């Protein structure tokens, strides 16, 4: 394989060559043996493994709404309820925040990925099992939140780096399918956990989920592989690489990241409080937990649909479609929902539009790479690092939204003074979610005004 062909493929997948490495890609017969990108048995098997990882690692904290309701009302922690909302958002926030660090480490030391993936799975399971012995909220934050989040980041995040090797021109669709795993897990796990929580309590529910997670995730330690051969340290090989972060100074990145952070500040709140809100308007436990399942089920369609849309339309338009749809869902549909049917409609709309927002990240990455090409037409922007930084931006929202939501509930001034959901005591959450969804689309306005 010639150097020009090698550099072209590296530019397509978004990785940078390692300094001092002359045999980055195999040549001759080994090069011909590389499986194809964008399709084929190996690529689709890899994507299926990513989908499973996404469903289990992310589906559990995204189903936290049923735990939120149980912890606050079942008597175990009702006297110490302050901080419960932070448990689930801490777990998701840590995985998001850890993205740049873990993805950078994966790219620099690919030969160690299997080792810290195994460590990650062990920490995840330890966090779940330890949470089953918790007697206070701070212990749940430490175990079901912090420990689970650290483990999940080590196990899951290498998949983002490897997906960039397997899919090039169908990258948006591939990321959309992968991220649809969150919706699938988030759809099924609340139904399963509601049954265990009601019949057996949270301690048994957590232990059973630890066993299920171990069975499902252990095979991924061996099946999660990159397309390119693993580079190992040795004579004449330097694994260090430059990570070009100059794109962070561009107006495009700043505006897009700002919108991403704002969207994250409201995104998690409906998923946390929908079961509690449903109970507040008189719905049963089963009907309440189904709201979370509907949000996450719709997110499956939203991720795949918006992921495919990103490959076909201008990225700022795709972001705006997601933002406007989610805004309407929050302010109009949820805002008027005081019975079962409109609340379910909200859950479906919100999951589809807001849940698909992160599927725009691959398109954002491509736009930034195009903007940041050098005089030779080569982009040194690393796809995985851009996605990681946007994940970290969303992590700000994940971490902040838990405590923020409790402040908004306590400060709500609309109870009994407004109609619909706005007067139920959850009005501040409805309004905050809607406003943040709208401003998540600020890049469209910046693009329209010629600012980026």
Concise summary:
The chain has 452 residues and is an all-alpha fold.
CATH superfamily: MFS general substrate transporter like domains
Determine the number of helices (DSSP H or I, runs of at least 4 residues): 20
Query: Number of folding domains?
Result: 1
Strand content: under 5%
Family: Belongs to the major facilitator superfamily. Monocarboxylate porter (TC 2.A.1.13) family.
GO molecular function, one term: transmembrane transporter activity
Transmembrane segments: 43-64, 84-104, 116-135, 141-163, 175-196, 208-226, 247-269, 289-310, 317-337, 343-364, 385-405, 425-446
Domain Major facilitator superfamily (MFS) profile: 252-452
Task: Describe it.
- With 452 residues, the chain is mainly α.
- The protein has one domain (35-227, 246-448): Up-down Bundle (Growth Hormone, Chain: A).
- Helix content is 70%, strand content 0%.
- It is built from 20 helices and no strands.
- The chain has helices at 3-13, 29-32, 41-62, 64-73, 85-97, 99-108, 113-131, 137-156, 158-166, 171-200, 202-217, 220-223, 251-280, 285-310, 315-333, 340-353, 361-371, 383-410, 427-439, 442-448.
- Helix 4 (64-73) crosses helix 13, helix 5 (85-97) runs parallel beside helix 8 and helix 10 (171-200) runs antiparallel to helix 11 (202-217).
- The longest helix has 30 residues, at 171-200.
- The two termini are 38 Å apart.
- Mean pLDDT is 84; it is low at 1-30.
- It is a multi-pass membrane protein.
- It holds the Pfam family MFS_1.
- InterPro entries: MFS, MFS_dom, MFS_trans_sf, Proton-linked_MCT.
- Residues 252-452 form the Major facilitator superfamily (MFS) profile domain.
- Keywords: Membrane, Transmembrane, Transmembrane helix.
